[in-house]
Structures are given as structure tokens and as C-alpha cells.
TrEMBL record:
Gene behind this protein: tig
Family annotation (Gene3D superfamilies): 3.10.50.40, Trigger factor ribosome-binding domain, Trigger factor, C-terminal domain
Protein name stated in the entry: Trigger factor
Swiss-Prot/TrEMBL catalytic activity: [protein]-peptidylproline (omega=180) = [protein]-peptidylproline (omega=0)
Enzyme class: isomerase
GO cellular component, one term: cytoplasm
């Protein structure tokens, strides 16, 4: 066997190889002999089919398999000898012979290799660690959110305002004709909640029960219903009922409704604080992790194999398609293009290669006690924490997920220590995504 390696790009390789046809012929003969022991044909006992007939029937299959095996063997040997880390699968290209007297099978294997990743210097990278201590003010804000989630409504004799639930009848006409979806009775919605168009809400705001209004309204140009987008219509609205919001008091009943069996409000506040501290910790970790990933990319400018990017993009597209199907959409109605995910796939592949090298070079592997601590921490938000711990440890696949999180946390911790890190106070609303 002869070989010749050429580099097509920084990651692409081409190896030219040749295999003697005599070796392939021997392999074909050996395969046919093995087939002849078990092949069945009408008129012959098993194993007694003449070799000539076996060759006529199965010769093409045996030759195809023999060539495939020879090509694979030659490629694997060369990869091993040259210590190449192949990314993806090789593309095999047969080479045409200039002579009719073919004594060797010539072919090329074109493939990509993994890039060399050298751990970079993060000392020039800046990372900000958000700082927030959960106190009474944060607990109060969270309890207020919980109250609003349990809002009830009671009939009120007043003009409708934001926060009120109104019940209306309405009819919409375009060019004097009622349009599709333009009519409803006893239709409820909360003013200011954004469930209706702003101009529609503005027309209803200020009306009292028993009052009505006729008004013109123009739908936005990008309105989801194409037959109404950009169109001006006329609405007739009759307000039948105004209901004012009623928020529950933070008392024993409220505490019991939130899962505190004895109704102790102090216990409720402690539970809310404990849950908030876990959530704040998680969000701060996520913000730091995001900065670390950017720092790693900046400190490790590497090229990535197209084969790995294509695989990752396909997986992301498949995940998106399954997510849409889970939401009730049919597969034929889901326009998911793999190309949409290429940029994200490049980033994920780069980070995967960089982090794998860092874990090996800096010995950032997950320790059993770290995995146990993570699982127990996640279990704290469950009614029976021990049940979740047992669930994770029941299957290696589940525990592997926790191990991957620990490894990622180890990389983040190492990067934070290696980079220029500073602490920065952050508001509760900003951290929780409630800032205006």
C-alpha cells in the first residue's frame, strides 16, 4: 500500500492511497468461500452450491464489501500511523487509472482534523461578578408578585381603568361587512395587560357598565391576520361589566395556599427568601458564565471543522423541530432551516473544543463530591429532596448530566480566577429581568 498526504486547508487533509488488486481479489475469494458454506439455492443442499454459481450470484456484493473493507483498513492504518484526530467522516474519492492493466486500486480520502487548542492567557480578559444580597425588600417584591398571580376580580361601579377586567360585546366591520374574527359576546380581558391592541384598549378605557362606543381603528401593517394587516375598520363596543382586581392579604390563608401547612407567615417569608437566594445565585452564575464563554472565545481564536459544525447545526435544528412539535405544530408546517443554526453551532463547537482542552490541561474534571453537592443543591427546591437524589443516582445517564454541569462550573471558576475579575452591585429588578 502506498500513501501520500496533502493539506488542502488548515484543517482539511487529503491522503492518496493505493491497495494491490491482488489483495482485494484474495479477500473476494475468501468472502465467497464463507458465503458458500451457508448460501441456499433451489435444487442444492445448503453448502453444496457450486462455487461458480455462488460467484455469479454474490460476486458483486463480495467485491463491493472487500473494496470497502480494504479502503477502511488503509485509511485507519494511515490515521493511526500519522496520529491524526479525524473530525467527522472521510470522503472517499476513487482515482482513475490511465492504463487498462489495473494492478492497484487508487483512491483519496479527504477529511478534516481537530484543531490544536493551546490553553490561552485570560489575564487580559475582564469579568464582572454581579453582587446582590437578598433582604426584606426583595422578599416583599416577590410576595407582591405572588399576590398578583392570585388576583381575583369583583364587580365594580366605576369607569374602566388599567388593571380592571372588562367584559364586552364587540362587532368589527370592514367596508360595512363583519370580517372574520371581528365579532364576540361576553368577551373578557384585562385592561393594560397587552392582550388587545393599544388603540382598542384606549377606546374601552374610561367606559362604565352599560356604555358603548363606535370608533375607527387601523391594524398594524405586520398584524398576524393578513386580511386585516394595515386595514382600517370600524368597531362597535358595548361594555357589560367592570371588575376591579382584588389582591389577597398576606395572612395565614395565603401562607397555607403557598404550601405552609400551619399558615405561619414568618415561615412563608423564610421559604421565599431561601428560594430567592437559590434563584439569585443561579442567575448570577449564568451571567458570569456568559462572560466567561466570551472570554474563552476571545483568548482562543481557533478554526473549527466544518463537519462538526454541520453535525451540531443539524442537532440544533432537530431540537427546534421537536420543540415546535411539542407545542402542537405539525412537522409539515414547521419551516426549520439548518442554516439558521450555523452561527450558533460554530460557537458551541468552538467552546466545546476549548473547554475540553482546558479540562484536560488544568485538571478540571468533576469530583464525586462535587457531583453529589450539585445534585443535593438542586434537590432542595423539591418537597422530598432525597427522592430527586435517588432519581439522579439511579441511572448513569442522569448523573452524567450533573457531571457535565460540574465540569462547566469548574471551567468557569478557573476562568474567573485567571481573568481580571471585579464585583459590581446589581439591582434585584435588573437581575430578575424586571427592569424597565
Amino acid at each position: 500500500m502506498e500513501t501520500n498526504q496533502e493539506s488542502q486547508s488548515s484543517l482539511e487533509r487529503r491522503i492518496d492511497m493505493s491497495v494491490p488488486m491482488a489483495d482485494i481479489d484474495k479477500e473476494v475469494e475468501a468472502r465467497l468461500k464463507r458465503m458458500a458454506r451457508t448460501v441456499k439455492m433451489p435444487g442444492f443442499r445448503p453448502g453444496k452450491v457450486p462455487m461458480k454459481i455462488v460467484e455469479q450470484t454474490h460476486g458483486a456484493q463480495a467485491r463491493s464489501e472487500a473494496i470497502g473493507a480494504a479502503v477502511e483498513k488503509a485509511f485507519v492504518e494511515q490515521v493511526r500511523e500519522q496520529n491524526l484526530r479525524v473530525a467527522g467522516y472521510p470522503r472517499i474519492e476513487p482515482k482513475k487509472s490511465e492504463s487498462d492493466d489495473v494492478t492497484v486500486l487508487e483512491f483519496s480520502a479527504v477529511f478534516e482534523v481537530y484543531p490544536d487548542v493551546v490553553p490561552g492567557d485570560l489575564s487580559a480578559q475582564s469579568i464582572e461578578r454581579p453582587q446582590l444580597v437578598v433582604g426584606d425588600a426583595e422578599v416583599d417584591k416577590t410576595l407582591e408578585v405572588l399576590r398578583k398571580q392570585r388576583t381575583t376580580f369583583a364587580a365594580a361601579e366605576k369607569a374602566a381603568e388599567d388593571g380592571d377586567r372588562v367584559v364586552i360585546d364587540f362587532t368589527g366591520r370592514k367596508d360595512g361587512e363583519v370580517f372574520e374574527g371581528g365579532q364576540a359576546q361576553d368577551f373578557p380581558f384585562v385592561l393594560g395587560a397587552g392582550s388587545m391592541l393599544k388603540d382598542f384598549e384606549e377606546a374601552v378605557r374610561g367606559l362604565k357598565a352599560g356604555e358603548g362606543k363606535t370608533f375607527d381603528m387601523t391594524f398594524p401593517a405586520d398584524y398576524h391576520a393578513a386580511h386585516l394587516a394595515g386595514q382600517t375598520v370600524q368597531f362597535e363596543v358595548a361594555l357589560k361589566r367592570v371588575e376591579a382586581p382584588q389582591l389577597p392579604e398576606i395572612d395565614a390563608d395565603f401562607a397555607r395556599a403557598m404550601g405552609v401547612a400551619d399558615g405561619d407567615v414568618a415561615k412563608l417569608r423564610e421559604e421565599v427568601k431561601s428560594n430567592l437566594e437559590r434563584e439569585v445565585k443561579r442567575r448570577i452564575q449564568a451571567k458570569v458564565k456568559e462572560q466567561v464563554m466570551e472570554a474563552l472565545l476571545a483568548a482562543h481564536p481557533i478554526e473549527v471543522p466544518k463537519a462538526l459544525v454541520d453535525q451540531e447545526a443539524q442537532q440544533l435544528a432537530d431540537n427546534a423541530r421537536r420543540d415546535l412539535e411539542a407545542r402542537g405544530l405539525k412537522a409539515k408546517d414547521i419551516p426549520v432551516n439548518v442554516g439558521w443554526f450555523t452561527e450558533q453551532a460554530v460557537r458551541r463547537v468552538k467552546l466545546g473544543l476549548i473547554m475540553a482542552e482546558l479540562v484536560k490541561a488544568r485538571e478540571l474534571h468533576a469530583k464525586p463530591e462535587q457531583i453529589r453537592a450539585l445534585v443535593e443543591d438542586m434537590a432542595q427546591s423539591y418537597e422530598d429532596p432525597s427522592e430527586l437524589v435517588r432519581w439522579y443516582y439511579a441511572q448513569p445517564e442522569r448523573l452524567a448530566q450533573a457531571e457535565a454541569v460540574v465540569i462547566e462550573d469548574n471551567v468557569v471558576a478557573w476562568a474567573v480566577a485567571a481573568a481580571k475579575t471585579s464585583d459590581k452591585a446589581i439591582s434585584f429588578d435588573e437581575l430578575m429581568g424586571n427592569a424597565a
